[in-house]
Amino acid sequence: MSSSKALSDDSFAIAHFKLSDMWCHLMMEEENKDRYSQWEKIEEDIKRCKKCNLWRSRKNPVVGEGSIESKILFVGEAPGYWEDINGRPFVGRAGKFLDELLEIAGLKREDIYITNVLKCRPPNNRDPLDEEIKACSPYLDKQIEIINPDIIVTLGNFATRYVLNKYGLKSEPISRIHGRVFKSERTIITMYHPATAVYNPKMKQVLTNDFLILRTYTKGAKKD
Ligand code: URA
Ligand code: SF4
Hints:
Layout: H1 3-48, H2 54-57, E1 65-66, E2 72-76, H3 81-86, H4 93-104, E3 113-116, H5 130-147, E4 151-155, H6 157-166, H7 174-177, E5 180-183, E6 187-191, H8 201-218
Parallel strand pairs: 2-3, 2-4, 4-6
Antiparallel strand pairs: 1-3, 5-6
The protein binds uracil and iron/sulfur cluster.
Uracil (URA) binds next to loops.
């Protein structure tokens, strides 16, 4: 083969590569536009929602926070006192500890998306009722569909049960399965709720060890 032929083959290959790269980029931009417009719709739906009785006592619904382009989704239980006031997830004492745990896992809030099973606060932080979970979980399902995370980290019994069951996996009390990694179409990592450790140094250590496991999974899994 002549060198000029080899050269033109090379330039053709490079041009082709650049074009397909540009095409890929454009497709991703389109996908992202679609993702953000679907997200706006779900935010509006949640803000207007009256599907269970919790809308009556809530100050603000909590949609969630972080990057919807992240590959890692955290799911908590429900907003508490401070979350209800601020309309943001995990901003109270449990949230402060969660920030420490995220640092242990090599993550920042902006690297992940974080939401809850329930979007409105149950009065006096009581446990979510089955009927409330049933009414509210389609929002979480839709959030999972839009974000399409590789990893879902569940925080506490309620999120763990909901997410494992959703993927056809058997749930057990979090005291038995904390720090475990489940594989289905997504990787599910089950954690104690950070609130369990707020006044309990032993539990702090358990959660710290579990988040160290998470660190090995989150490298390279931050974004699309
Ligand atoms: N506990 C949760 O489960 N979620 C929050 O957003 C805050 C506290
Ligand atoms: Fe709607 Fe969920 Fe709030 Fe109930 S908890 S009112 S279902 S957003």
